[in-house]
Structures
1.
Amino acid sequence: QVQFVESGGGLVQPGGSLRLSCAASRSIASIYTMAWYRQAPGKQREWVATCVSDGITSYKDSVKGRFTISRDNAKNTMYLQMNSLKPEDTAVYYCKSPGNGWGQGTQVTVSS
């Protein structure tokens, strides 16, 4: 199994930006699908974005045009660039790939 460690969260004002990182415990080159999820207080965990190894990406409608998912196989790391953040983006963000467990997540709080 691969363990993931998420980082990069924090407190940001509406309209601000953050870049989340997801560091893997081993090479991710052979992992076809990697994704970001989030869980807001009192809500179920939801899918945010997916990146497959051939570069194809997909996004939840509410983050399209604002978030960009990417991966660097050489660094065993996946990223989520988040721009134009809104209060409703406040959540704990997790990275995941099929067959592997959940990490601890990283808290993102968007508030003035």
Note: The mean pLDDT is 95.
2.
Amino acid sequence: QVQLVESGGELMQAGGSLRLSCTASGRTFSSYAMGWFRQAPGKEREFVAAISWSGGFTYCADSVKGRFTISRDNAKNTVYLRMNSLKPEDTAVYYCAAHTPTSSSGSYYTFQHEYDYWGQGTQVTVSS
């Protein structure tokens, strides 16, 4: 079992920067691929960024590529989402998620059904 707790969300002005954190319980965090998703009001939850268990592979959605960076610190059981050049359309609840490793696990995952554990979310609001 993995429990995930996101933090760092707040009200920001457009153009600003913010770093979200997601801290996991459990001793096996370093074996889990992790991801960030977001859900804007009235919209479906969507993929934002993903990272492999080692941190060696990362991938970001086109909508945030070049502005957002995902990283992790396995010694701290934490995955981060650095968000630069924030836009009003980045306003959403941001969720982190963990993929349980299997013998056939790949590097990272972009679909929600590939993740087994989810945090409660943290609100990011970007004003224009």
Note: The radius of gyration is 14 Å.
3.
Amino acid sequence: QVQLVESGGGLVQPGGSLRLSCAASGITFSLYAMAWYRQAPGKQRELVAIISRDGSTNYGDSVRGRFIISRDNAEKTVYLQMNSLNAEDTAVYYCNARFAREYWGQGTQVTVSS
């Protein structure tokens, strides 16, 4: 059974930082491209960042320069370091794994508010 379990979300003040983690099980993690998506209330789900099997990365325009995606294949975990957070970053953040199939985590809430 495939599981993607996100953690690290919460409430943070504007300008603050958070690090999200997504622990994978049931897949050969090193074969998968891993991504973070987010969905704010009333908006479509959008790509935040993606890291390929070889470690190359790409970011959504709204987070480039502030967020960093990384992976640890030994730990089967992907991370999202989020810096300089603002209210527009408030959303549910989802972990995504894609190779032959695509899998999603259950999401973790990030709220940026003073």
Note: The longest strand covers residues 18-25.
